[in-house]
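Workshop exercise sheet. Pairs work together: one partner reads the sequence aloud, the other fills in the structure field after running the prediction. Swap roles for the next sheet.
Pair: D.N. / O.F.
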Amino acid sequence: MWNGSVRPAVEDDHPFLLEMLYEAAYWRTDQPRPPRDEALARPELSKILDGWGRHGDAALIAVTRCGVPVGAAWYRYWTREDHSYGFVDEATPELGIAVRRSQRGLGIGTRLLRELMRYARAAGIKTLSLSVEVENFSLKLYERWGFKRVSAAGGAWTMIANL
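Structure field:
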């Protein structure tokens, strides 16, 4: 079991959030990945963290006992006109989560998800949404934490959890 801690993200964490966005988007270990800067420049990815820090944005960072960041979970509100893959409505923020490849399987993702759901509940949020490819090993984690499929498109599910 992982014995690090989770803390709220600060402005200086933005580069690490970008690193985690890359990990979330290119989670498959058996396939080649494009260079990080090239991948994050793609419009469908770049928009996810562009302008980070706007009202309603929230992120948590998992750190080792030495303070090294190893994972992140975040949520963000979208509009019907401008949204990401897991959008369900303007009242439901969409979450993203990732853990460094070398740290996966230690319980960090579970801890981040649990803490982010607590954080959202404390902020008065009633539901969270996400998008996950059906082959992604994280799907089981989301199901354990109460996420239910609401739609499917292109090999991915949009899921929602009531808080």
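Discussion prompt: Helices lie at 14-25, 36-40, 43-49, 108-122, 138-144. What would you look at next?
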